[in-house]
């Protein structure tokens, strides 16, 4: 990703600020998803065709993960290793979402649409965070 494109997406030409903004956006979206899974695992489970217990567990994980990512975003200079862990976790989440969809989930039509959309969103966060991390190393 070019420096100009990265700066445009982050609305800053400072790579460190771009990385913090992409981490913060990830934390907000992931946290909202986690809280929704916690608060409405039953109805969302029916809507998506996913076991409510699984959504509850995912909600716990996502909420904790979002808190950690938010903490990183609040640091003036997030440690590169920690950002790499977030990027790796996001890539793993995206891949496992698609594997789960193909291998063992039996989603509704809504779940069949939701799962790849959220996987693509998370993969997008990983790409933006990785590009910003590489730009900070320059």
The tally of beta strands, per DSSP, is 0
Shape: elongated
Could you say which structural class the secondary elements and strand pairing correspond to? mainly alpha
Helix content: over 70%
Total DSSP helices:
6
Low-confidence runs: 4-8
Report the sheet-strand fraction.
under 5%
Q: What letter string, H or E per element, gives the SSE order?
A: HHHHHH
Determine Rg (CA atoms, Å): 16 Å
* Cα-to-Cα separation, first versus last residue: 14 Å
**Mean pLDDT, all residues:** 91
**Major β-sheet annotation:** none
3D structure, described in words:
The structure is a single chain. The chain has six helices and no strands. The chain is mostly helical and 138 residues long. Helix content is 85%, strand content 0%.
Write a brief structural summary.
With 138 residues, the chain is mainly alpha-helical. It has helices at residues 3-10, 15-39, 41-48, 52-74, 80-103, 109-137.
């Amino acid at each position: 990703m070019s420096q100009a494109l990265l700066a445009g997406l982050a609305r800053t030409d400072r790579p460190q600020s771009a990385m913090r903004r992409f981490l913060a956006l990830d934390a907000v979206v992931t946290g909202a998803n986690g809280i929704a899974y916690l608060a409405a695992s039953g109805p969302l489970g029916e809507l998506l065709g996913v076991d409510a217990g699984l959504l509850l567990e995912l909600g716990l994980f996502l909420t904790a993960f979002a808190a950690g990512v938010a903490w990183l975003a609040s640091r003036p200079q997030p440690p590169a290793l920690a950002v790499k862990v977030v990027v790796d976790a996001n890539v793993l989440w995206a891949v496992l979402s698609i594997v789960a969809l193909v291998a063992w989930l039996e989603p509704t039509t809504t779940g069949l649409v939701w799962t790849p959309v959220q996987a693509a969103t998370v993969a997008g966060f990983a790409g933006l965070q990785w590009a910003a991390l590489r730009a900070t190393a320059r």
